[in-house]
Structures
1.
Amino acid sequence: MNFTIAIPEIFVLSMLCLILLVDIFTPVRFKIATYLLVQLTLVLTFLCVLTQYLNYSNQIITFNGAYVLDKLALLTKLFLLVTTFFVFIYAFDYLRKRNIGRSEYYILGLLAVLGMQIMASAYSFLTIYLGLELLSLSLYAMVALDKDSARATEAAMKYFVMGALATGLLLYGMSMVYGATRTIDISQLGDIVNLATRNENMVVLLGLIFMLAGLLFKFGVVPFHMWVPDVYDGAPTSVTLFIASAPKVAAFCVTMRILVEGLSSMQIEWQFILVCVAVLSMFGGNVLAIAQSNIKRMLAYSSIAHMGYVLLGIIAGPDTVEGYSAAMFYIATYVLVAAGAFAVIAIMSDEGVELDKLEDYRGLNARNPWLAFIMLLLMFSMAGVPPTVGFFAKLGLLQALVEANYIWLAALALVFAIIGAYYYLRIVMLMYFEEPRAELVKVKITMRPGILAAISVNGIAVLWFGLLPSSWIDMCRLSMV
Amino acid sequence: MWLQSSLLSILIWLPVIGAVATLFTGGDKNAAMARIIATIVAIANLLLCIPLYLGFDSSTYLMQFKENYVWINVYDIHYALGIDGISLAMIILTNFTGLLVILAGCQAIKIRVAQYMAAFLVMQGMMIGVFAATDSILFYVFWEGMLIPMYLSIGMWGSTNRNYASIKFFLYTFLGSILMLIAILYLYEYTGQFQIDKFYGLNLPLRTQEYIFFAFLLAFAVKVPMWPVHTWLPDAHTEAPSGGSVVLAALMLKLGIYGFLRFSMPIVPDASAALAWLMIALSLIAIVYIGLVAIVQTDMKKLIAYSSIAHMGFATLGCFMIYQIVATMKNYHDAYMSLEGAVIQMISHAFGSGAMFLGVGIMADRMYNHSRAIKDYGGLATSMPIFAAFFMLFAMSNVGLPGTAGFVGEFMVILSAFQSNFWIAFVAALTLVLAASYTLWMYKRVFFGPVLNEHVAALPDLTILEKINYTLLAIGVFFVGLYPEAVLNILHATIGHLLLISLPAAS
């Protein structure tokens, strides 16, 4: 038993209990204490993980093979902690103006972070399942935070029912694999599957398909994407912001564990499945996004497409190690960009009014040039136009695909990228080429200094890493070897 | 010397830094400040071309003013810059045009001045980057990076149908460039490097070369633009503000030709030779068919836009004629002249059409309804005599009158084409008739005849700033027209080498 490697998780858990107690005894006007404590926890945990990252020497497996500490886990944790920190800053004003779940949001959020951290370090099916459920249950509750909103409740219900089904599939798949291999440890799984006969592997294959279904649901890719637009749209923007960002990184990490570290010998099978899913997602996401008039729904479809791109990296992975690091880089940059974009929506939304129609972005440049410029960078990054970071994310994927001899897939990915460019450009068009609606001309968009700083850092980072992406790419690459 | 080793970087990034500075002047309250900053930056950049020109050794084809830093370690992508004769000429042209556009914008643009200036400064920086990059990914980044400011400038300061035109422009060019990216990545797999000169002389199998050729062709043909992927250009030109039209015509179209010279021909010479017939055919279609289309235009900007396509057809013809010439004549001298003519055509077209687009802007800004329609004008020579005189000069350059810039390139291309194939030369020479008819007919309808109405009669003649602009352009037209040796001198060595590596190994 090596408890030291789980220190960040233990710390978060203890802080959670403490914050829960503090929260009960603080009067309403001091609720900001909860927020500050949660942010403090995130910062301290980040520093703790960073220490582990800097002192990292080699992979450590503990708790009878259920828990692992390696570069992938550490990097995932770093990404999700930073993202969550920013997300909570963005959410603060939005929640305060609407007075919804002002302390519950952060506590549930922190609980979700704990779940994601466990997912990142999980090395057996049991721990994976534990982390995943901790994350999912917190998210279901967060979607329903705005309990007076019928749409939010409906979204939460849909999310819960479908999510539970997906988790069921995942668990069912795990039980099959366990039945066939008598192990739930990922470290042993690979060897056993390698040695097994074809007949025994048929069961594993069936289990793999079920597990994939569960995981792909978490990614939100076609054909498991139905929940994405409804939940993104129905949930309060501050929650959408959270769902759209950090959990994607954690889901990616778990997928890497199961597919690459556990079942690499079945790569031909899962590669084939992922190719179908990726193509469908890039197509479906990008095409359906064009038809949307609500920006949250539009970004939901765009996230479906982007997750399709991430899968491309995993597809190329077995043939070239660049594939996995490209996918990691892609998802990390996507999270950065998506968090920024949803934050802009949250900032735009005024008290009581949800300004999430595309129309509301008309003439943003005339109302607030800086916010419009940040949104411009984010949109061009999503479209993959240099000099934003989104270009290098796509470049890495394409390079891996070409190296793995999937040139047709690379060409297809680019064709879909052009379709995607259209609706990102449309937002830029609305912001820059049109005049604001008459009743909005005078409405000031106010930002507290904290939010302004956070969104500025976020926006500039998109440009900064677009000009100098080398260090970040290296980081993602090291996590894969 | 530090200037020698970082001059190109300064040329690229000074306008970008200037753009940020302009943006910080804020809203239109400080418009004068934004104008001053932008003008200073543009002048400084043009002045920096002097050490660039003086320090350039025209006796060698090797890259000069080289800079090379590792940019992205993993993929071995370098921040690598360097120029040869063609790049030098294009960079000077870019800075020259950049200054003109800024000066013209100082007067014509009244709203969101700071953003306008910033967009054009960034565009200028990116364009210099394209001409200076010797790493293919760096090239691609600059190539795509300039789409954003161009897209914004069409959309923000354009006329009524700007949304359609700007998105069409962006998607067309984006579509073109992605296949180029795949081709570059394929070449990277093959060589393990992104440096452009490492792609030369690979001797790939013909079938592979053809795939790569078509991938590059789409990117560059859209930019040139060649028939039949030219339809974005009339729209973009018509809707763009006149500064945007000038940059499009004078510089952005040249990027396509530059791409052919830098990528297609030297990287896949065998495919270029095998498919030269296709390129020649497309060029001739552009020259004749688009020339005919230009005649019937009723919108002045559209007319000049179509005439640009026809003139660019000449440049592509000059590029790909070399294979025909070498195949029939076994004569390098004529091929050399053809290629040089194409490059001169690139440069000279910038003066003529750039000036004409500026002119349409000058007219439309003065007119009460901002009309660009030919029928709304008439007898302009009476109310704006100085403008009419200048415009005549540029129209003549567009026609290809000897003594003006437009003559040199066309003459060289036709002359060398004549040596190898009479009919190609004959069809290409039709342009002399066509260009004369559409340009001069337009000139007649707009400037001559009785003054059409009181609006035309009331139009004031050129302001000081506009006179400066036009004088600069007129000097350019005469300089290239009367003493082309000055430009040709810096091109000789580069084009000689380019010809050598662009011809298939067998011949």
2.
Amino acid sequence: MFWKRQVPIFIVALIGSITLFGWFIDQPNVKEFIGDDATQWFDVLASFAIILGALNLIKMQIQKVLYQKPGWQYSVIAVLGFIFAIIAGFFIKGVDDSVAEWGAHVTSDGTLFKWMFDYVFSPMSATMFSLLAFFVASASYRAFRIRNFEATLLLVSGIIIMVGRVPIGGVISSWFIMYLIVLFLGIYVNSIKKDKKVTFIFVAVGLSLVTIFGTIMGWPIDQPGIFYLPSIQEWIYYYPNVAGARAIMIGIGLGIFATSIRYILGIERSYIGE
Amino acid sequence: MKDKQFWVGSAIIAVLFLIYWVAGHPYFVTDRIVMFISIIFLSATLIFYTRAAERGEEFFLRPIPALKAVEEAVGRSTEMGRPILYVPGIQDMDQVETVAGVVVLGHVAKMTARYETSLNVPVSRSIVMKAARESCRDAYTVEGRPDMFNEDMVHYLTDDQFAYAAGVNGIMVREKPAACMYMGKFYAESLILAETGNSIGAIQIAGTASQAQIPFFVTACDYTLIGEEFFAASAYLSQKPELIGGVKGQDMIKLFVTAAIVLSTILMILFETAGVGINISDFLTIR
Amino acid sequence: MNNIKDIENIFLKIGKIDRRWIFIIIAVVVIIPLLVPIGLPIRATDTSKSVYDALENLPKGSNVLLSVEYSPSTKPENHPMTISVLRHLFRNDHKVYVTCLWPDGQFMAQDALSQVAEGEFNKVYGQDYVLLGYRPGGEAVVKGIVSNIRKLFSVDAKQTKVDEIPMMDGIKNFKDFDFLFSASAGYPGTIEWVQYASDPTGIPMSSGVTSIQVNEVMPYVQSGQMVGVLAGMPGAAEYESLIGQKGSATSGMDAQSVAHLVIVLFIVLGNISYFIDRKRSRKY
């Protein structure tokens, strides 16, 4: 128990304290330790630990194939891909030493590894990332519903950002947005008064006012700015969004701080299974 | 003044630091004194409330639906006879969020041991794999079910972000887990995972401090632990007094920070408009 | 009355549409504008203009550090930014030092440099630009560059000794650069550069990030810790229009515009169906 409990907690407390308080100490050795060594130690450990991960991966995939578990065919591809990557990385360069030496071959054109990167890894990564476009569409379709006031606010600002952020938002004039607002207000008036005459008069007066004012003032496409989508989206990004983001950032920062202190002081020990 | 030991300890540390300061404070980076004092003060606040909780003082914790849902999700999986998928993020153990994710995994593993439900934890870093295994092994042992623990319930997929997302998606589609939990540090793969989980009808609970991913999780998951809620999860789930005290301490720190922001804003307005007082912004900027 | 009910039923059906239909429609509306471009005008936002102005106002021959931290997955968003920024820097005869915090970043940097530095500007390697390459360690690399770049990079990406590279003369640490531009897709990236390099040293920096990251980065822009930001593919397209050389981001904007409009349309249809559903459930 001593090696699995007290020692890890002592290491966390010691290295954690040095890293935290070392930032206030102007001494080259301490500075070098917290700036370079501590993080590099972790990287060295993590690099060696990859072997463990790779072995586990291969073990799991081979087991799947041997016991013909559901989807075992994919495991065959995984194992073959694993072997191919090792061959391309460590055994077959595909070019002479004059073109690329071992080590530099991973980024040199014409090598087997670079071929794998360009024609296998890159397209597959891009495919996975591009799935986001589809998932964003389906998620927003499902989630953006006018359930209450907050959800409505979220929906309206979401639409403004989505349209205002892209060039098509720039060709939608402030006039058009004002006409839309008048029409939506008309729906609201109708739902309260439930009188078609009142609604008609409201909408007609609203549309006329926008047209008359616009003509007299000679508003171009982006005037008045508060009704121009790209300007509104920039404002949303810059103010309400930043305000919310800062609040969350402060909360997260404090959470990280409190958690780190709990680890350093040994109050939280669950990470070693206690 | 209930905690005499705490106050005596604090006084000793303060006196020692004063002596060091008067003695010329060798090796100390004086430009960072504000941050140093802040850290000491905030740490002391945390320790104070932790000790108070240990002494038996009770603190109210507002209920967090996402944490209540964790046990429900495990129960649902048991009823349906399907596994639980737990994703501890895509970063390594040097990120606090990953550590918090592994901590929550320990609590989830205790529940799965209790309910005899199978648990599947694909990871994207080898060190996380080792840590998560230890956490699960201990959880199953504590619950008296070491026989149910199987090392391969925590397994490594790949370090690459999107290859990992593809691997986890494959597991979701093939095994159709009844509950999917995402607790850790996430990037663009968050929506890919959560939408796939949604498509298989799993109950989904997420917890992250990755600010940009919170909207995606909120949209696609049933419950989301946002930022600090995620870090407080361990206290909620374990109900250990010392951890609950820490959460209370964290709230008090937040109160101090809010007061400092308001005060700094007033001072800054006074300084910039009337030239009264000091430039607090210079004072607080740390180089 | 029946007619209204029929229409309502159609909307209800749309509301319960299988998400695979949405995927197909999105695919179609993205592909068509890519094949038949509409050529919508691009208007630069203030944040993009700030980046342009900051680089434009650098004195000739400035040392600019360009950090490439993205992988092939986000290439369509980040790569056009790197290309445009490189064009802008080489056009103004600045010296460009390229580092990578991501292993895949080196491939991306190599690709951009061979297209712009070699293909378009005939710049000389080692005199006008250098690719220092990738070093593992995340923020430790940023800290290393701030304290002593030569300790971290003893050789460049081509394994040439840094001491033998002419443009490395006088470059010891981050303070020897005049500007930093980070093309970033996540961690480690822009935020680490702000926290550990630009903010402590006062060297100005800017960044080009993916759309997802804009939220996270915006507070640093507003506080003045960063000079503007290129936000996702629209930001890249805006920069292309600012430097007057269109590229892949501009051609992608038509597709993105139409896709956004279609998503808005889906949201509207979804809400109509939601209202009908709610109205009916209230009735019963």
